[in-house]
Specification:
Order of helices and strands of chain B: HHH
Bound molecules: protoporphyrin IX containing FE, FE2/S2 (inorganic) cluster
Distance between the termini of chain B: 46 Å
Helix content of chain B: over 70%
Radius of gyration of chain B: 15 Å
Mean pLDDT of chain B: 91
Low-confidence stretches of chain B: none
Oligomer: heterodimer
Strand content of chain B: under 5%
Largest interface: A-B, 25 and 24 residues
Strand content of chain A: 5-15%
Mean pLDDT of chain A: 87
Chain lengths: 343, 70
Amino acid sequence: MGVNYQPVLWNKNKKKYDKWIAISMFIYLISFIGITFFTNSQTSIETLVIRSFGTLALALLHIILVIGPLTRLNTRLLPLLYNRRHLGVSMFIAALVHGGFSIFQFHSLGNVNPIYALFTSNMEYDSLANFPFQVLGFLALIILFLMAATSHDFWLKNLSPKVWKRLHMMVYIAYALILLHVFLGAFQQQPSISSISILIIGFFIIATLHIITAIKESRIDKKKTSIIEEGWEYVCDLQEIPNDRAKIFVVSKERIAVFKYNNKLSAISNVCKHQGGPLGEGKVVDGCVTCPWHGYQYLPHNGQSPPPFTEKIATYRLKKIDNQIFVLPEALAEGTEVEPVTF
Amino acid sequence: MEIVIDVILSVLGLYFGIGLLFGIYFFFKGAFKLDELIIESKWTVRLLLVPGAIGLWPILLLKIINKLRT
Ligand code: HEM
Ligand code: FES
């Protein structure tokens, strides 16, 4: 939402989160290296770097993948979502150190190109137990690179949200490749029950959370509004919406958010122009509907971002009979002013 | 198998090689053609965009060509 781009969108809170990410990553690496050093002092520095950064990247990936569903289940966790992008870039850097060090350690000694060596030093592509698992890590790293490289808002706008979203959905392909990379790799090195059980538990947590959220979302979509005369649809009673908040409904297959603020009611599209964030899960702050994902703002009575910003979303007509709120399902053109219902 | 690997790696190398050249063009010129907001933004923003330009050059090249045509 802007008139120019900043290299990194930092504010006080984001700086705080980033500091915590950096401190946690540092503590993790130090503890990993410390513990391994005491329990297995034979381990070389290179192996320590490879293992500590590899497992760090894996842990960060798990956190990233559960943040999405968790914030949809509990809105108090939303601040985590604001910082997911920086977490993603941090994960890529950790994975890059791990992969880079592995290539340097195992594949750069001969006189062939190290990447070529990575693909050809073990040719047992037809074996499951001896499969060259490093290749899977390499492919995952390329996906993570593309995602980290396109995390700036510039890409969201210029690739179009659809292409961008598709690209970033590839994180699930990367996750699958990494699971195989670690499974096959662990079996070829020293199979350790603990790391494999952590992987399996992690997978079940991620899968379960995604399934629960999908079920919850489909319930909202099914929550039909009942139809009354002249095309107006009943959505809910006045007291069902908390002050400065909204309720989300589906009318004509579109999600809308009905906001209650200053003894007024307004209805707008639920979809944020930025990355499609759920506006109806946000609050009215200083008179503006504020997207819960990254804070884009819209005026509730006309769906326009306050100047100098230019984003516009569709608005809807409302009416109130006694305590019941009704909506006209046809979306008005984006940015159309609608007189709010007062009460 | 080695032939398959040869082909895959050559294509990958070529792709990122062209990407590198495109990345340089993108930093100095292409970014401005694609998005006017870049004009008001610092050069560090463009630097940050270069890795993405290297990785996704075919999409960006098409977008820039389409923009120049209209
Ligand atoms: C070019 C890419 C990559 C290469 C060459 C590579 C190479 C390796 C190697 C050689 C090992 C075995 C290390 C050992 O046990 O001594 C390993 C293990 C591992 N890799 Fe990768 N890897 C790559 C990418 C990735 C990525 C993208 C991730 C995850 C985000 C990842 C996560 C892991 C994990 C969690 C382990 C297990 C560490 C352990 O055994 O304690 N790797 N990798
Ligand atoms: S989706 Fe990013 S601010 Fe709404």
